[in-house]
Amino acid sequence: MIDKQLKLHVCKLTSVHPYNDIRIYFKECYSLAKTGYNMHLIAPGAPDNLVEIIHLYSVPKVKSNLLKRMIKTIWDVYIKALEINADLYHFHDPELIPIGLILKAKGKKVIYDVHEDVPRQILSKEYIPRLSRRIVSKLTESIENFACKHFDAIVTATPYICDRFSKLGCNAVNINNYPILSELHIPEINWEEKEKAVCYVGGIWEQRGIYEMVKAIGQTNTKLLLAGNFSSTEQRNKVVSMSGWANVKELGYLDRKGVADTLAKSIAGLVVLHPIINYLDALPVKMFEYMSAGIPVIASNFPLWKEIIEGNKCGICVDPMNPKAIAKAIQWIVDNPNEAKRMGENGRKAVEEKYNWENEADKLRALYKELQS
Fold this sequence. Notes:
Blueprint: E1 9-13, H1 22-33, E2 38-44, E3 50-51, E4 54-59, H2 66-84, E5 88-91, H3 97-105, E6 109-114, H4 118-122, H5 130-148, E7 153-156, H6 159-166, E8 172-174, E9 197-201, H7 210-217, E10 223-227, H8 233-240, E11 248-252, H9 256-265, E12 268-271, H10 277-280, H11 285-292, E13 297-300, H12 303-309, E14 315-318, H13 323-335, H14 337-353, H15 357-372
Parallel strand pairs: 1-2, 1-5, 2-4, 5-6, 6-7, 7-8, 9-10, 9-12, 10-11, 12-13, 13-14
Antiparallel strand pairs: 3-4
Helix pairs in contact: 1-15, 7-13, 11-14
């Protein structure tokens, strides 16, 4: 049990994310800890000690099936949460909703951090039989809607998700997952020193446009710096067999320094996600990280994304299902370096003024202060 003094003790819970998840650890925990909150984080596989100003607590990783994880890991998280006996609990996974309700029943203040629009996300999950997806989606939404009315606050990662919970009468606050201003920007890199390469950073699978990106890069005289893990060996084997793979440099999973170095080398970043329901109103962090690094964005032509990209004159929006359109945008960036550099500068300026974590952290601190009163 923690030794309570004057500071509010906050315990953040996750059964899915690694302890050093960017949003949970580097953004939310650090922002609050630096303001004086005593932060505790329970996560699978976390080092069981104090790292700088955040107390870490580990629960065992369960690498077998989903059901076992949702029983064993959730139970371990709950037991550890009770031991900590914090003033406020802030959890990050929908499978932890039952724990949130129990903690609330014990008189604790509880926040649910909703990273994704889960009911809509379920509609595109390939491991769920197609005929069952709508039923599972509706059931999930019903459970979320019921539970969220009992929590002290709902933190969301996009305005669309926030609007959904606000309409239910919840105390919903939108905390966008924007980049930390100082993390990815390397101002001493000259545009002329960059490689003739565009990049993609993130999870790699079909709905995130990997086939279209590889087909597109094969139609240019440019390299694709591909950073991230494939969703399956089968999918990687299929992509590697494509002719455009000759223009791909596979980097694998990168740490944050590796991501920064890759963005610094690139002349543009790709975020050509497919037009499926859970992407249309999403705000992918990679889009804003490209902007933060000062490189143009080649993005799907969704209305929300066009408003951001074209509104700030920081990139090109294309039909994500059309490799020729993607290739044309890449080639334009290559052929027009001065205009591309200006787009990158516009994106960086927009991040400095609007799309940065520092602004979002102020909203999170305001919420915590509200819940203290």
